[in-house]
C-alpha cells in the first residue's frame, strides 16, 4: 500500500512538472528555426513587409508565397518566421505538408495535431477526422494572436484543413503559405495576398554559390571565371546553387570544367527530382504539352503554339502551367521558361531511352538527330524532331527513308542545316513542317498531311505546280525567298489559310484566281516579287487585314473588288508600277491605311477611294502627278456635305506648291498628321489655322519655305529641320508655340536666339533646376551647334567631298534622359528626336513619359528640394539651353534655378553632368531610327542615284538597301505575328552564305567583349547580317567577296598601288583573311586609337595587303604610323600560306624590287601622293576588266587570290619611249588642228604654195601615224613571243 502511494505521488509530481513546463514554454517566445547562408532575403523581406503589415488593424492577414520548386520559398518563409515570431503569442512552422499529408491516410490529422501542439495547445490522441481537427484548431486559436507558416501546400484541401478561414485565428494573426501552385491560393475561399518568389540576381547568386563552394562570400583565387560559369548555369535558382556549390567543393578547376559539362548534358539528380514534382502533378495531356514546349517552342508565341497543339488534339490551356510556375508569358505573348525547368523536361524525355535516341518521343540535340537520320534508327515513338545546330552544317550522308519509321511524327523543324537532297518519304501525321532550305523541288509522292497547320519553307527549292490538296487545318504558309516558284497554284483546298508569305520570290509571275477568294486569309505578303505584273483579276477576301506588294516594281494593276470588305485593312504598295486604282476600290470599306509611295506613274485617285469611311492614313510620297486628282475632287465635292475622314497624309517630295497645300487642307479638314517635307513651296497657306484637328506638321527640308502663318492651337509637333529660308517672323511663330502650354510640343527647327521671356537661359552644363512637392510643367529649348571639327582644311574639304559623292546628309538623333537627385527615371520607352546641326529642339518634358508614369513621379515628391537634370545622348554638342515654366499649371514657389539651400550645393556637386550616364538602349535607338527613317532625309538630292540598280554598286546603295530592308522587316514581323504566325527565327531571311560568313564573324568576337556586352553584340550582329544581305541582293554572287588593295612600299616609305586581293566565299583562304580583318578591327576599336571626338575621317583606317621592299643591308624599320600588324604570338597557317604566295609572286614578277615581305595591316596611310592619279586609273581599268594600261606599259597578272602588277618587263624602256613619243605626237596633232581651225577663216587668202605645203604636212602626219601603228603591232608580237618564252 505504501509502495502504491509512493507511485501515485511520483506520477502526480511528474504531471505537475509537465504542466509547469508546458505552461512556461507556452509563455516563452517560439524558438528560432535554424537555416544556413541567407543571401538576398533582406531585400525580399522589405518588399513583403508592407504586404503582411504586422502593426495594422485587427484583421487576419494571409500571405501566399508561390514559385517553382527550388526557388527558396521555404527558406524565405523560415527567414520571415524568425524575424517576426517574437511579436505573436504563439507560432508554428508546419513543414513539408505535401509530403506528410500523402504518407498515410491520417496525414492531415497528424499535421493538425502538430500545429496545435506547437501552438501550446493540448490535443486529443485521436481526433477522428480532419473536420474535427479543423474545429479544434478554430476553437483553441480563435482568440489567440498567432503566426502560422504552412510550407509546401499543394491542394486546397490541405489549406482548408489547416487554415480554413480568417475567423479561425485571433485578431492580427498572420498566416504564411508556400506553394508551387498559384491556383491553390486562388481557389481558397479566404483572400490571400500573393507574392511570387523570383530568382536571385547575379551578385546574390554568386555570393550564395561561394558560401557552399568555398565557405566564404567570394570566389577563391583562380576560380572567379569558372564560378561565373556555374552561376550562369544555375540562373538564380538557390537549390541549384547549393547543390552545384556543394558538389564542386574541394575540386580542382579542371574537375569543375568536367562537372559543369556533365550538368549541361545530364542535370543533377537532386535538382531534377525537386523540379519534377511540379511536372508529375500535371495531367497526361498537359505533360505532353509541357514536353513539346520544353523541347521545341520556348520563346515562341503562345497563340501559334496553341494552334499546333490543338491540331494534335491536346486541348492546351496555358493557365495550368503558369499557375505551377513552370511557364510564364511575357508582354508580347511569348512563352518563357527557366533554363533548368527546360532541362528538367528534356531530361524526362532522355530517360525514356538513355542509350537509343531513336526510341525517344522527342529529339532536339543536333548530334543525336544526325545519328538517327544517318543510321535510320528512328521509331514510331518519335513525335517531334528539331535539327538546329549552333553553326550552319551540311548534311550529306543520311538515309532518304529515315522518316518512314516515324509514323507518329507531329513536329519537324530543320534550321541552319543544308541537306544535299530531300527525303523520299515524309509522314502524313505532321502538324508542323518548318524546314528552311527544303532541298527538293516537290514533296514526296504520297505526302498528304491532312492536319498540317504550318508549311514554313523559306529559301526552299519548291516549284508548286500541283494544286493544294484539302488541308482543313492549314493556317500558315511561308515561302519566303523561294527562287524556283514562278506561279501560285489553286489554293481552294486550304480554306482556313490565314497567313501567306511570299516575299522575295523574284521569279513569281502569277497567282491562281482562287487566291482572290480565300475566305479566311488575313495576311498576304508578296513584297519584292520583282517579276510580278499583276495579282488576281478579281478578289473578295472578307477576312483580309494586311496586303503587301512593296517593291514589286512591275506590278501594274490592282484587282477588281467584287464585294464590300469591311475588315480593318492595311495595304502596302510602295514603289510599284500602279497607274490607277479601279473604281471598285470603294468596296474596301474597311481600308484604314495605304502606302503608295514612289508609285511615280500613279495619276489618279478616284473619289470613291478618298471617301472611304475608315481611311485614315494615306502615304503618297513622290507621287507628283496626283495634284490634279485632288483639285478635281475639290471642285466636284462639297466638303460640308461629303467630308473625307483622312487623319494622316504623307505627301513628300512631290513638287507641291502653296496652292496644292491649300487644296489638301480644304478637302481633308480632319487631318491630324501632315507630312509635306522635301517640297519646294515658299509659304504655308493661312487657311491652315482652321485645321482644328492638326497635331503634327512635318515640313522639314523645305529649303524654299519662308513664311509660316499662325498655326492652330491643336498643334503638338512641328518639324522644320533644314528650312534655311525661314524669316524672323516665321521663326517667332514657332517659338510662340512653347508658351501655349500644350502637353506635347516637339519642334526641331533652325537655330535662333532663345527669347528673353524664357524663365531661365544658360550656356553652361546641361538643363537643371530644383523643385519640390510636384514635378513642374516646363518646356526646354536645347540649341545644338555644328559638330566640332579637329581636321585640317584639306581633310575638311575631302570629308565634304566624300559625303557629297555618297549622297549623305548629316542625320542626328537626340535622346533625353530625366535624372532626379542623380537617379535616372526610366519610362517604358526611351524617347528620341531627329535634330540637325545648328538647330534648336523645343520640347515639353511631358512627352518623355506616359500620364501614368508622370503620376508616379509626382507622388515621389515631398517638401524637400530635389535637383532635376536632363541629360542628352547625341553626337551633337549642346551650346545653350533654356527653360520655360507653364505658370498656369505650376506654382513658381516650388521651382528654383539657383541652389535653394546651402546643403543643395554639396548634393549638386556630387551630381555633375559628367557623372550622369544614361542607361544605354541601342535596340530602342535603332528601332527609332528605322521607324523614322526617310531616305530623302539622309540621301537628299542623290536619292535617285542611290536607288538606281544600274552601274557599279556604291556604299550608298548598300546602306539604303540595308535601312529599307530593316524597316520593312519590322513592319512585316509585327503584321505576321499579330495574326498568330510563328515568330521570325534567327537568320530566317538570310541565304546560307550570309549565315556562314556571319558565324565566322561571331567566332572572332573577343571573349571578354562577348561576355561583357551580350546585348550590344546581338544588336550589332543583326545590323551586320542586314548589311551582308544588302550586299548580296545588290552585288549577287560577289556580295560577300573580300577585297582589299595590295600596296607596294619602297625602302623610302612611299607606297604604290600594286594589285588587289579578291577572295570568294568557299575559298580555302576566306576564313583566315576574314579572321584577320576582324582581329584588326577589334584591336583598333577597343584600343585607345579610335577617338570619338575626332571626325570619322580622322578615325578612318583601311585594311590592306602591304608588300615591303627589303633592300640589301636594310633593317626593317619599326612601324610608327598607326598600323596594326600581326599580333605578337599570333599565328595562322592558312594566312601565312597566302601571304607567302603573294610574296613569291610579287618577287618573281618584280625582280628589281628585291626581297619582299607581305602582311595584312590596318592603316591610315594609303597611297603616296605622287601615285594617286595612277591608282585611280588602274582601279578603274580593273573594274572594267582590263589587265593592261597603254598597251603593255603596265600589266596585271591574274592569280588565284586576285590580281598583282607586273613591273619588270624587258621591253619596258622601249614601250615607255614609244608611248612618250605617242603622247608628244598627240599633243602636236591637237596643236596642229587648233592652228588649222584658227586660220580656217582665212584659208582662201593663203597663196597656193603655202596651201600645198599644208597638204604635204598633213600627209606626213598621216604617214607617221601609220608607221607608229605598224611599230605598235610589231612590239605587240614581240611581247607575245617573250611571254611564251617566260
Automatic annotation (TrEMBL):
Sorted UniProt keywords: Leucine-rich repeat, Membrane, Plant defense, Repeat, Transmembrane, Transmembrane helix
Naturally occurring in which organism (per UniProt): Flemingia macrophylla
TM region(s), chain numbering: 1218-1241, 1253-1272
Signal as UniProt keyword: no
Superkingdom assignment: Eukaryota
UniProt xrefs under Gene3D superfamilies: Helical domain of apoptotic protease-activating factors, P-loop containing nucleotide triphosphate hydrolases, Ribonuclease Inhibitor
Domain Disease resistance protein Roq1-like winged-helix residues, every copy: 286-353
Location of the NB-ARC domain: 57-216
Signal peptide: none
Residue stretches making up the Disease resistance protein RPS4B/Roq1-like leucine-rich repeats domain: 540-726
Protein name per its UniProtKB record: TMV resistance protein N
InterPro entries the UniProt entry points to: Apaf_helical (IPR042197), Disease_R_plants (IPR044974), LRR_dom_sf (IPR032675), NB-ARC (IPR002182), P-loop_NTPase (IPR027417), RPS4B/Roq1-like_LRR (IPR058546), WHD_ROQ1-like (IPR058192)
Organismal lineage: Eukaryota, Viridiplantae, Streptophyta, Embryophyta, Tracheophyta
KW Membrane (keyword) present: yes
Amino acid at each position: 500500500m505504501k509502495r502504491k502511494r509512493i507511485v501515485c505521488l511520483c506520477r502526480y509530481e511528474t504531471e505537475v512538472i509537465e504542466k509547469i513546463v508546458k505552461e512556461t514554454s507556452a509563455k516563452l517566445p517560439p524558438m528560432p528555426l535554424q537555416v544556413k547562408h541567407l543571401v538576398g532575403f533582406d531585400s525580399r523581406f522589405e518588399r513583403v513587409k508592407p504586404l503582411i503589415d504586422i502593426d495594422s488593424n485587427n484583421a487576419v492577414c494571409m500571405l501566399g508565397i508561390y514559385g517553382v520548386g527550388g526557388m527558396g520559398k521555404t527558406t524565405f518563409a523560415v527567414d520571415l518566421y524568425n524575424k517576426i515570431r517574437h511579436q505573436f503569442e504563439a507560432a508554428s512552422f508546419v513543414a513539408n505538408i505535401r509530403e506528410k499529408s500523402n504518407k498515410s491516410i491520417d496525414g492531415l490529422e497528424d499535421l493538425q495535431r502538430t500545429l496545435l501542439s506547437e501552438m501550446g495547445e493540448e490535443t486529443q490522441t485521436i481526433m477522428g477526422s480532419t473536420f474535427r481537427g479543423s474545429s479544434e484548431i478554430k476553437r483553441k486559436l480563435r482568440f489567440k494572436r498567432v503566426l502560422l507558416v504552412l510550407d509546401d501546400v499543394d491542394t486546397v484541401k490541405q489549406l482548408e484543413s489547416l487554415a480554413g478561414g480568417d475567423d479561425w485565428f485571433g485578431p492580427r494573426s498572420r498566416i504564411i503559405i508556400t506553394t508551387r501552385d498559384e491556383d491553390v491560393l486562388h481557389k481558397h475561399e479566404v483572400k490571400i495576398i500573393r507574392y511570387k518568389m523570383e530568382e536571385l540576381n547575379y551578385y546574390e547568386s554568386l555570393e550564395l554559390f561561394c558560401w557552399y563552394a568555398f565557405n566564404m562570400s567570394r570566389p577563391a583565387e583562380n576560380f572567379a571565371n569558372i564560378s561565373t560559369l556555374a552561376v550562369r548555369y544555375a540562373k538564380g535558382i538557390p537549390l541549384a546553387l547549393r547543390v552545384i556549390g556543394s558538389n564542386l567543393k574541394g575540386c580542382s578547376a579542371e574537375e569543375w570544367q568536367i562537372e559543369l559539362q556533365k550538368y549541361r548534358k545530364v542535370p543533377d539528380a537532386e535538382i531534377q527530382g525537386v523540379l519534377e514534382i511540379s511536372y508529375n502533378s500535371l495531367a497526361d495531356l498537359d505533360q505532353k504539352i509541357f514536353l513539346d514546349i520544353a523541347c521545341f517552342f520556348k520563346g515562341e508565341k503562345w497563340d501559334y503554339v496553341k494552334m499546333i497543339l490543338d491540331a494534335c488534339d491536346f486541348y492546351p490551356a496555358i493557365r495550368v502551367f503558369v499557375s505551377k510556375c513552370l511557364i510564364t508569358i511575357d508582354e508580347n505573348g511569348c512563352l518563357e521558361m527557366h533554363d533548368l525547368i527546360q532541362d528538367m523536361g528534356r531530361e524526362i524525355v532522355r530517360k525514356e531511352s538513355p542509350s537509343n535516341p531513336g526510341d525517344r518521343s522527342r529529339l532536339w540535340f543536333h548530334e543525336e538527330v544526325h545519328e538517327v537520320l544517318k543510321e535510320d534508327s528512328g521509331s514510331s515513338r518519335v513525335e517531334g524532331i528539331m535539327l538546329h545546330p549552333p553553326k550552319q552544317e551540311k548534311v550529306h550522308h543520311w538515309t532518304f527513308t529515315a522518316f518512314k519509321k516515324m509514323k507518329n511524327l507531329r513536329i519537324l523543324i530543320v534550321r541552319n542545316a543544308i541537306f544535299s537532297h530531300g527525303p523520299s518519304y515524309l509522314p502524313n501525321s505532321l502538324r508542323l513542317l518548318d524546314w528552311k532550305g527544303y532541298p527538293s523541288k516537290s514533296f514526296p509522292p504520297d505526302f498528304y498531311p491532312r492536319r498540317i497547320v504550318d508549311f514554313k519553307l523559306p529559301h526552299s527549292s519548291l516549284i508548286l505546280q500541283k494544286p493544294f490538296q484539302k488541308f482543313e487545318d492549314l493556317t500558315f504558309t511561308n515561302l519566303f525567298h523561294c527562287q524556283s516558284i514562278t506561279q501560285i497554284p489553286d489554293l481552294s483546298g486550304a480554306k482556313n489559310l490565314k497567313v501567306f508569305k511570299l516575299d522575295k520570290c523574284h521569279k513569281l509571275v502569277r497567282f491562281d484566281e482562287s487566291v482572290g477568294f480565300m475566305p479566311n486569309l488575313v495576311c498576304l505578303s508578296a513584297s519584292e516579287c520583282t517579276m510580278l505584273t499583276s495579282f488576281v483579276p478579281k478578289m473578295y477576301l472578307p477576312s483580309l487585314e494586311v496586303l503587301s506588294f512593296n517593291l514589286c516594281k512591275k506590278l501594274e494593276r490592282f484587282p477588281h473588288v467584287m464585294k464590300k470588305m469591311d475588315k480593318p485593312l492595311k495595304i502596302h504598295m510602295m514603289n510599284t508600277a500602279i497607274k490607277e486604282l479601279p473604281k471598285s476600290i470603294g468596296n474596301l470599306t474597311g481600308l484604314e491605311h495605304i502606302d503608295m509611295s514612289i508609285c511615280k506613274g500613279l495619276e489618279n485617285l478616284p473619289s470613291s477611294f478618298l471617301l472611304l469611311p475608315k481611311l485614315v492614313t494615306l502615304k503618297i510620297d513622290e507621287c507628283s502627278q496626283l495634284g490634279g486628282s485632288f483639285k478635281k475632287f475639290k471642285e466636284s465635292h462639297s466638303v460640308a456635305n461629303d467630308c473625307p475622314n483622312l487623319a494622316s497624309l504623307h505627301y513628300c517630295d512631290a513638287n507641291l506648291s502653296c496652292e496644292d497645300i491649300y487644296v489638301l487642307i480644304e478637302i481633308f479638314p480632319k487631318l491630324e498628321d501632315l507630312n509635306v517635307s522635301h517640297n519646294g513651296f515658299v509659304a504655308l497657306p493661312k487657311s491652315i489655322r482652321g485645321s482644328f484637328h492638326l497635331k503634327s506638321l512635318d515640313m522639314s527640308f523645305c529649303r524654299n519655305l519662308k513664311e509660316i502663318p499662325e498655326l492652330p492651337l491643336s498643334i503638338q509637333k512641328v518639324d522644320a529641320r533644314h528650312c534655311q529660308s525661314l524669316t524672323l517672323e516665321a521663326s517667332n511663330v514657332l517659338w510662340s508655340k512653347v508658351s501655349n502650354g500644350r502637353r506635347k510640343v516637339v519642334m526641331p527647327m533652325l537655330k535662333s536666339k532663345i527669347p528673353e521671356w524664357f524663365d531661365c537661359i544658360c550656356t553652361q552644363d546641361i538643363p537643371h533646376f530644383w523643385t519640390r512637392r510636384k514635378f513642374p510643367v516646363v518646356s526646354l529649348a536645347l540649341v545644338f551647334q555644328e559638330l566640332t571639327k579637329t581636321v585640317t582644311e584639306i581633310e575638311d574639304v575631302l570629308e565634304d567631298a566624300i559625303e557629297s559623292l555618297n549622297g549623305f546628309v548629316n542625320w542626328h538623333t537626340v535622346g533625353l534622359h530625366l535624372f532626379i537627385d542623380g537617379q535616372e527615371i526610366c519610362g517604358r520607352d526611351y524617347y528620341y528626336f531627329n535634330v540637325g546641326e545648328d538647330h534648336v529642339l523645343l520640347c515639353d518634358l511631358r512627352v518623355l513619359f506616359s500620364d501614368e508614369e508622370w503620376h508616379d513621379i509626382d507622388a515621389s515628391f515631398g517638401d524637400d528640394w530635389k535637383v532635376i537634370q536632363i541629360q542628352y545622348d547625341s553626337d551633337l554638342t549642346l551650346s545653350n539651353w533654356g527653360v520655360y515654366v507653364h505658370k498656369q499649371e505650376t506654382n513658381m514657389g516650388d521651382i528654383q534655378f539657383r541652389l535653394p539651400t546651402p546643403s543643395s550645393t554639396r548634393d549638386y556637386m556630387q551630381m555633375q553632368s559628367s557623372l550622369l550616364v544614361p542607361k544605354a538602349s541601342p535596340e530602342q535607338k535603332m528601332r527609332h531610327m528605322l521607324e523614322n527613317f526617310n531616305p530623302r532625309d539622309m540621301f537628299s538630292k542623290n536619292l535617285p542615284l542611290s536607288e538606281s540598280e544600274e552601274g557599279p554598286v556604291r556604299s550608298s546603295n548598300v546602306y539604303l538597301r540595308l535601312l529599307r530592308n530593316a524597316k520593312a522587316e519590322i513592319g512585316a514581323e509585327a503584321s505576321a505575328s499579330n495574326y498568330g504566325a510563328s515568330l521570325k527565327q534567327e537568320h530566317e531571311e538570310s541565304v546560307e552564305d550570309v549565315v556562314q560568313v556571319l558565324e565566322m564573324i561571331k567566332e572572332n568576337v573577343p571573349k571578354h567583349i562577348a561576355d561583357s556586352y551580350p546585348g550590344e553584340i546581338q544588336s550589332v550582329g543583326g545590323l551586320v547580317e542586314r548589311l551582308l544581305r544588302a550586299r548580296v541582293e545588290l552585288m549577287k554572287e560577289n556580295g560577300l567577296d573580300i577585297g582589299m588593295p595590295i600596296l607596294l612600299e619602297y625602302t623610302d616609305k612611299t607606297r604604290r598601288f600594286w594589285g588587289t586581293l579578291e577572295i570568294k566565299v568557299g575559298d580555302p583562304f576566306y576564313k583566315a583573311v576574314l579572321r584577320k580583318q576582324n582581329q584588326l578591327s577589334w584591336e583598333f576599336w577597343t584600343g585607345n586609337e579610335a577617338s570619338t571626338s575626332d571626325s570619322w575621317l580622322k578615325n578612318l583606317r583601311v585594311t590592306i595587303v602591304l608588300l615591303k621592299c627589303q633592300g640589301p643591308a636594310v633593317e626593317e624599320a619599326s612601324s610608327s604610323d598607326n598600323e596594326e600588324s600581326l599580333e605578337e604570338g599570333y599565328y595562322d597557317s592558312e594566312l601565312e600560306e597566302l601571304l607567302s604566295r603573294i610574296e613569291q609572286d610579287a618577287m618573281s614578277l618584280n625582280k628589281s624590287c628585291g626581297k619582299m615581305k607581305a602582311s595584312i595591316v590596318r592603316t591610315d596611310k594609303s597611297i603616296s601622293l605622287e601615285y594617286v592619279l595612277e591608282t585611280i586609273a588602274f582601279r578603274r581599268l580593273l573594274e572594267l576588266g582590263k589587265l593592261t594600261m597603254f598597251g603593255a606599259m603596265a600589266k596585271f597578272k591574274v592569280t588565284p587570290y586576285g590580281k598583282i602588277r607586273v613591273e619588270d618587263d624587258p621591253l619596258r624602256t622601249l614601250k615607255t619611249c614609244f608611248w612618250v613619243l605617242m603622247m608628244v605626237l598627240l599633243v602636236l596633232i591637237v596643236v596642229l588642228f587648233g592652228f588649222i581651225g584658227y586660220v580656217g577663216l582665212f584659208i582662201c587668202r593663203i597663196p597656193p604654195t603655202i596651201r600645198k605645203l599644208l597638204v604635204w604636212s598633213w600627209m606626213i602626219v598621216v604617214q607617221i601615224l601609220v608607221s607608229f601603228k605598224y611599230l605598235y603591232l610589231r612590239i605587240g608580237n614581240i611581247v607575245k613571243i617573250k611571254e611564251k618564252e617566260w
